[in-house]
Write the structure tokens for this entry.
Amino acid sequence: MRRIVVGLSGASGAIYGIRLLDLLRGMAGVETHLVISEAARRTIAQETDWSLRDVEALAARRYSDRDIGAAIASGSFATDGMVIVPCSIKSASAVAHCAANTLLARAADVTLKEGRPLILVVRETPLHLGHLRVLTACCELGAVILPPMPAFYNRPKHIDDLIDHTLARVLDRLRLPHRLVPEWQGSAPSAEPPGGLPARG
């Protein structure tokens, strides 16, 4: 059984976390452990039609963000990694400064200290210098910064296509198999002549 910790923070993009939980629930041999910050509870209500109860039901186990004595707060509780999705700058800052005053931050800190994958799907723009320094600090500690950057080479037709593309990258980092996005096999040779666009005749 592979244990994956999923944290939802209060950043915009709650649907990324909900969709990840739904994907993980459908994988055999994967057990999800969920913690939702107080701010995320509000964001879920504002941005989606999901009830908090239904979101929590997607996980095998769920914890209060105030429960710093939960299983995922200890390094002796073996997991295969953690994803904070979406990840607010506030949550990233807590990770960067080891401010383990909530279960979300403590579980992330434990993930890093035990050398396990920590993926931060940071949702904020534009980024000022303070944000960039926080993200640099997280990266230096070993976290993977994986913002939800939409790709267009796969010709997305719906918002769900954009969401799944980002989550495919998350699953790749966790080394979990998926069929969300086909593996890139290279582009077809271009019919465009060397030197760019043809001259107008």
